[in-house]
Design goal:
alpha+beta; seven-stranded mixed sheet; Deoxyribonuclease I, Chain A
Amino acid sequence: MKKMLFLVALGLCLVALLMWLAGGIQSVSTTAVEPIDYEPGATPAVATSTLTVVTWNVAWGFGWGSEGSQKPTGKKSKADIEASLQKIGEAIRDHGADIVLLQEVDFGSKRSFYLDEGELLARASGLRYFAPAVSWRANYIPFPYWPIAAHFGRMKSGGAILSRYPITSAEVQLLPKPPKNLFLYNWFYLFRFLQRAEILVGESRVEVFNMHLDAFHQDNRESQADLVAGRVRASKSNLVVVGGDLNTVPPESKLKHEYPDEPHTDHRTDGTLARFRSLAGFQEAVTKENFAAGPDRFFTFPAHQPNRQLDHLFFSPGFVVHTATVPREVGDPSDHLPLVSKVTF
């Protein structure tokens, strides 16, 4: 009897320890977030009807190997991460970005030396308004599994929106985790997210939806896309920007599986992008015609050897889309390249 009680107590202690390491049992939720102004009291930017919008998965400044699933080119120092973030911020500034949708930003994680990457990117880019979207919190992430010294450890990460113009409100919605994962694995697994913000450009309100969708489970990614598309349809704004790292390729892509960098990834039956193309009146930054005429111009992943477009932008009927480019000259401070689009309203 004593032995049984001891085993029960030991099991309860183990469960309690795992729950603490995972940051507790977390569930899908929507939370309001207070936007940040890094230059309070400064003269506001003069609004125009032209906007440059960027979406960029910055891979927390690590670059290729940031997931931990690929062998990195070498251990990165704090100075390496800071230099990558500075380079990303300067590229955002040099392209004249007004609104930036970011994914994989750390806000005090062990793997990135507890840097507040949001502040570093805001200051390097010269965009004073910032809204964080923390979607992955844990006291300890035991990944990559070996060696132990490489574990991510304490985690606080997600995405963000940067803006030249005031962000008047923001919220982050945690999206469902893959139901096929073991429950214990999902305790530690990141939430993908949808971030919504309202930005005041002069007297016009622009509604922005920034997302990072499931990379490894097509059915869950499509379900997340349905959820996001539903929220966009419910918007009453005439000026809506939708984008982020959708982890899917255009159906027109010639290469949809057996990628050199990820041979097991398969997009042949993926309907994620169709969910967004069905949004009435919305325009895709990279049109089907432009993509078909030169698909390699729009590849965003992997940054060092691009072979597919995973990052996308859509604009509501209140916008006119003029250009969409993927500037390769930014190099590979991230494992993604940015997608840059110029629009007017």
